[in-house]
Write a structure and sequence with these properties.
Its main location: cytoplasm. This protein has about 170 residues and is an alpha/beta fold. The chain is built from eight helices and five strands. It has a five-stranded parallel β-sheet, sandwiched between helices. α4 runs parallel beside α5 and α6 packs across α7. The N and C termini lie close together (about 10 Å). It binds shikimate-3-phosphate. Shikimate-3-phosphate (S3P) binds next to loops.
Length: about 170
């Protein structure tokens, strides 16, 4: 079986839905951000602050390529994984890419108290989310085999929605 790759903005439920999917299809669950943090030995937030976004994107690209070359899994990716065209090719080659889509308003509802995401540690995080959505929605659509609108259904409903598309 090929991997199932989840893409979407921060807060779209990639890790939560990914864990449920992994149980359902019997594949291991991998979170690329977690692998990056293991390699770094520190949090992504600290690395971002110290080295900047471009250094983070280089490492992210390397980790995604390594994971795509490894055994099949359910892979939750970081929200910016689609920014580089090379990553979009990597993710498509790894398996079925699923875009978990949620509106910026819904994402804000879920992330308003978040302190982990460096791109939201700005004066107007709600606007930052709207801008990220405008920039990335077309890229998620481009890379994904299908889209699941997450809205407010439960995790198990979302897992079923993904399963129905496979
Ligand atoms: C990022 C999203 C984060 C993480 C990093 C950058 C982004 O992952 O990779 O902070 O550019 O949107 P999540 O989507 O899991 O929050």
């Amino acid at each position: 079986m090929r991997s199932l790759v989840l893409v979407g903005l921060p807060g779209s439920g990639k890790s939560t839905v990914g864990r449920g999917l992994a149980r359902r299809v019997g594949l291991p669950f991998t979170d690329s951000d977690h692998v990056i943090e293991q390699r770094l030995g520190c949090s992504i937030r600290d690395f971002f602050a110290r080295e900047g976004e471009s250094a983070f994107r280089d490492l992210e690209q390397q980790v995604l390529a390594d994971l795509a070359a490894g055994p099949a899994c359910v892979l939750a990716t970081g929200g910016g994984s689609v920014l580089r065209p090379a990553n979009r090719d990597t993710l498509r080659a790894a398996g079925h890419v699923v875009y978990l889509r949620a509106s910026p308003e819904e994402l804000w509802r879920r992330l308003r108290n978040d302190t982990k995401r460096p791109l939201l540690q700005v004066a107007d995080p709600q606007k930052a989310l709207r801008d990220l959505f405008a920039q990335r929605d077309p890229l998620y659509r481009e890379v994904a085999e299908f889209i699941v609108d997450t809205g407010r259904p439960s995790v198990s409903t979302l897992v079923n929605m993904v399963m129905m598309q496979l």
